[in-house]
Write a structure and sequence with these properties.
This protein is an alpha/beta fold and 229 residues long. 24% of the residues lie in helices and 29% in strands. Strands 1, 2, 3, 4, 5, 6, 9, 10 and 11 form a 9-stranded mixed sheet that branches. Strands 7-8 form a two-stranded parallel ribbon.
């Protein structure tokens, strides 16, 4: 598991196995997030929880989507946050609705349009990061707008998001991004929404306990009180 912050836990046989005692006898809480779509968006809420519950060792794990729910069901996580809808056997709450956007250089022909269609993207080349689950994110966003077709043409680059967007700004290709990330992009990058039925998608929190114990109950309270309408 990557992005592990202050996480040390011992299984304690509680209803939420992922809420345990760390080696200092303090509570520990393991939270799994899908890539930067959740990590960046929830930064303020996780910081608020850390300040409100300073004795809790908060472990934040950035994980692939396919690993999150199995880890939750196995008791390795107390909470999982990822794109998706209700899952049988799990409690969940929608935190926000995100949207698929197309990032491109400001002089790209599609930048002159208020919205782009899926058909206009078929021959375009998309830049995809090998880092930070970039390939999985590309496949997810592509599937949202083309659910019955393969992922849009992508070129894998060993670059982080900032450097990849520099390439996009320079006209080397397009990129699929989330509306949540638009404010963080270089001003030289133009961003347009995609005209597709599945372009908007929910991001939800999942947990297993019917009545979550503290400190999970406090984290849920913070997350749900700040969620978008």
């Amino acid at each position: 598991m990557a992005e592990n912050y202050h996480y040390s836990m011992m299984m304690a046989g509680m209803e939420n196995a992922s809420i345990a005692a760390n080696t200092d006898g303090e509570a520990a809480l393991a939270v799994g997030l899908f890539a930067s779509i959740c990590r960046d968006r929830l930064g303020d809420e996780l910081l608020a929880f850390a300040r409100r519950c300073p004795t809790v060792g908060l472990g934040v794990h950035e994980m692939p989507r396919a690993a999150l729910l199995p880890a939750l069901e196995a008791g390795e996580l107390a909470l999982a946050v990822m794109p998706g809808t209700a899952r049988p056997g799990l409690r969940s709450a929608r935190l926000w609705t995100d949207r698929v956007m197309i990032a491109m250089g400001a002089d790209h022909p599609l930048a002159a349009r208020p919205m782009v269609t899926v058909a206009e993207l078929r021959e375009e080349i998309f830049l995809v990061s090998r880092q930070q689950h970039g390939g999985e994110m590309h496949r997810l966003l592509s599937h949202c707008i083309r659910p019955l077709a393969p992922a849009l043409n992508g070129v894998l680059l060993d670059l982080g998001r900032a450097r990849l967007m520099e390439r996009v700004a320079g006209g080397a290709g397009l990129a699929l991004v989330c509306a949540s990330h638009v404010d963080e992009l270089d001003e030289r990058v133009a961003v347009r929404p995609v005209d597709a039925p599945g372009a908007s998608f929910p991001v939800s929190a999942y947990w297993t306990a019917q009545s979550p114990a503290w400190p999970l109950s406090e984290l849920l309270r913070i997350l749900l009180s700040s969620r978008a309408p």
